[in-house]
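We store sequence, tokenised fold; for instance:
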Amino acid sequence: MSLEALLLKTLLWNAQLLVALFFIAGFVSFYLENWGHAFRDKTLSHSRQLMYRVLLIVQAVFF
């Protein structure tokens, strides 16, 4: 394998890693926001908190 091919392969892998990190950071941010609504926000009704808890399970299983 030539040096150019190895460099190209490394650059492409780094680009994929960067895109994955952005998606992971977005998911964690969204999940933590919903966690706050489900467990820490005492101004929400109990049924609304349950809805957010179900949403957390759906996020964890399907995303």
Q: What stands out?
A: The chain has a mean pLDDT of 95. The radius of gyration is 19 Å.
